[in-house]
Design brief:
This protein is α+β, with helices and mostly antiparallel strands. The chain has three domains: 75 residues, RNA polymerase II/Efflux pump adaptor protein, barrel-sandwich hybrid domain (OB fold (Dihydrolipoamide Acetyltransferase, E2P)); 36 residues, Dihydrolipoamide Transferase (Irregular), CATH 4.10.320; 203 residues, Chloramphenicol acetyltransferase-like domain (Chloramphenicol Acetyltransferase, 2-Layer Sandwich), CATH 3.30.559. 28% of the residues lie in helices and 24% in strands. The strands form five sheets. Strands 9, 12, 15, 16, 17, 18 and 19 form a seven-stranded mixed beta sheet that branches. A four-stranded antiparallel beta sheet has the order 1-8-6-3, with no helix packed on it. Helix 2 packs parallel to helix 3, helix 6 packs across helix 7 and helix 6 packs across helix 9.
């Protein structure tokens, strides 16, 4: 009995996917729940698993083809029927043949003014050649229609444009190894759309501050081994910034809100998106109800989401519903940046590289591990005072992390 392989539900507002890669070939044995094909949506890459054992009898949709929810991708048979070969991938549009270069136009007939120039004095001819002034643009006042040097100077003073020499055509572009065209993935196209959407719809502004990381680094060093031994996960900086951001979001709820039409939606839950860079592009999985978590729970959640992102196993639910985002460009060496909002959110915190800098502490100059912080926000809903206050609260919590332990 044949079993159809269909495109499953892809999540809210996602109706189409692209067949990225078939994991089985026609004629191969298939066990229950075996992954058969990878589908790429504009948010995640997901696998379609076998719903029955048998043999992959037919592949109906080639790699690179767009498919809608419910479409039949292929068929699993019992192995008794004929096996149909996979369809060919959609052919790339043929490049038009290079047109033969047009024959050069015949040289135009010498204008009548040429003879006029020849009858001009040597000084006038030299000046016209140097300035690019055509003889026809000069009013001749000399005897027998001759052009004098004074006539050329008068024409130049009038601002008569010089005869522009046609620019030599650029050499034909060398094809082949010098460039490569690759079709954008659905995820990359979606990232581009959302980034442009943020710039087009939000009144985006960024405010900066800097934070002394000494206290957090000392606390992390003190408890690093015992923390990892007890909880099975490393104590990183991200959990401190998640906790510190929640303190700021509770005090400044507009940063945790969004605009919906003519209404402002204030969120009383704190689902923090953590930006993760992958080979396919930037994704922002969400740590849900982070305000109810301890440091260990946050670190475990971030580690698990990061692993799923690198393995391409994130689901639609992992990426949906964030209320605020944190992006750590410091892991790539970024010293300062202006992060772009993740619509429809109204705020995103940018962390950066920790760098030793000279700071005045107690009247003395000391080298301190400093980090620049950047908050990009939607000025339509968040005022400048609120943005600065939020960033100051984050700074206070990081520089005095005991505040986080006593909920201050």
């Amino acid at each position: 009995m044949a079993t159809e392989i269909k495109v499953p539900a892809l999540g809210e507002s996602v109706t189409e996917a692209t067949v990225a890669r078939w994991l089985k070939k026609p004629g191969e044995a298939v066990a229950m729940d075996d992954p058969l094909v990878e589908l790429e949506t504009d948010k995640v890459t997901l696998e379609v698993n076998a719903t029955a054992p048998g043999v992959l009898a037919e592949i109906r949709v080639a790699e690179g083809t767009n498919v809608a929810v419910g479409s039949v991708l292929g068929v699993i048979g019992d192995g008794t029927g004929a096996v149909k070969p996979a369809p060919a991938k959609p052919a790339a549009p043929a490049k038009p043949a290079a047109a033969a270069p047009p024959a050069p136009p015949a040289p135009p007939a010498a204008p009548a003014t040429a003879s006029m120039a020849e009858r001009s004095g040597p000084a006038a001819r030299k000046l016209m050649a140097e300035s690019g002034m055509p003889a026809g643009a000069v009013d001749a006042t000399g005897k027998d229609g001759r052009i004098t040097k004074g006539d050329v100077l008068t024409a130049l003073e009038r601002g008569t444009p010089a005869a522009a020499k046609p620019a030599a055509p650029p050499p034909p572009r060398e094809a082949g190894a010098r460039e490569e065209r690759v079709r954008m993935t659905r995820l990359r196209k979606r990232i581009a759309e959302r980034l442009k959407q943020a710039q087009n719809t939000a009144a985006m502004l960024t405010t900066f501050n800097e934070v002394d990381m000494s206290a957090v680094m000392a606390l992390r060093e003190k408890y690093r081994d015992s923390f990892e031994k007890k909880h099975g996960v490393r104590l990183g900086f991200m959990s401190f910034f998640v906790k510190a951001s929640i303190v700021g979001l509770k005090e400044i709820p507009a940063v945790n809100g969004e605009i919906d039409g003519e209404e402002i939606v204030y969120k009383n839950h704190y689902d923090i998106g953590v930006a993760v860079g992958t080979e396919q592009g930037l994704v922002v999985p969400v740590v849900r109800d982070a305000d109810r978590m301890g440091f260990a729970e946050i670190e475990k959640a971030i580690a698990e989401l990061g692993r799923k992102a690198r393995d391409g196993k994130l689901t639609i639910e992992d990426l949906s519903g964030g209320t605020f985002t944190i992006s750590n460009g410091g892991i790539y060496g970024s010293l300062m940046s202006t992060p772009i909002l993740n619509p429809p959110q109204s705020g995103i915190l940018g962390m950066h590289k920790i760098q030793q800098r000279p700071m005045v502490v107690g009247g003395k100059i000391e080298a301190r591990p400093m980090m620049y912080l950047a908050l990009s926000y939607d000025h339509r809903i968040v005022d400048g005072r609120e943005a600065v206050t939020f960033l100051v609260r984050v700074k206070e919590c990081i520089e005095d992390p005991e505040r986080l332990l006593v909920d201050m």
